[in-house]
Design brief:
The protein is α+β, with helices and mostly antiparallel strands. Helices cover 17% and strands 49% of the residues.
Length: 186
């Protein structure tokens, strides 16, 4: 079972890396990736997250490649992070949008479907103390990051950690969008 779990996560990660770099995948390779057995669902439970964008919701599975964390599924939904910085969002929502976030030391620039959306600046992550939240069983630590857009509109990114400092919930706003990206540990 462990071998199937590692193999499944490895294959999905390779597929997403190839997809994000613009490499072509032959249809027989794609068929193989999609044919990976789904029978070992219990083995994937520790890696399972719920992704939400507006009314759209799906189950995604976490994997790590170097410094990158990718949450993805076989339907093509994928969210890529590097050290809690959102980097790319693939095929999320009803219209299957694609976002990229480029960061430097002072700002972040957001592109949607390859088109410039805007630039925003985010402060450091701040410890906002502990909170008891109905949807999350444990008492949790809250971290917030305030971001401000060029037009002075502001929003907050949020991360909740459990008592063992495991991430339980993340919410990231997207400049120019009415919905944020939410990820909840299942």
């Amino acid at each position: 079972m462990v071998a199937i779990k590692k193999y499944t996560i490895f294959v999905i990660s390779i597929y997403l890396c190839l997809l994000s770099t613009g490499c072509a995948i032959k249809s027989d390779q794609l068929k193989f990736i999609k044919s990976i057995p789904n029978e070992d669902v219990e083995a994937l439970l520790p890696y399972t997250w719920t992704l939400k964008y507006g009314t759209y919701q799906s189950t995604v599975y976490a994997s790590e490649i170097g410094e990158m964390t990718i949450l993805s599924n076989q339907q093509g939904d994928a969210v890529t992070f590097e050290n809690f910085e959102l980097k790319e969002i693939h095929r999320i929502g009803r219209f299957r949008h694609f976002w990229q976030i480029f960061s430097d030391t002072e700002s972040k620039t957001l592109y949607k479907q390859g088109q410039y959306v805007g630039t925003f600046q985010c402060g450091e992550w701040q410890d906002a103390g502990k909170l008891d939240k109905d949807n999350i069983q444990d008492q949790i630590k809250v971290f917030r990051q305030t971001c401000r857009a060029e037009n002075n509109a502001s929003a907050q990114n949020i991360i909740y950690l459990d008592e063992q400092d495991h991430v339980k919930y993340m919410e990231f706003f997207l400049l120019g969008e009415e919905h944020s990206i939410e990820l909840r540990k299942s």
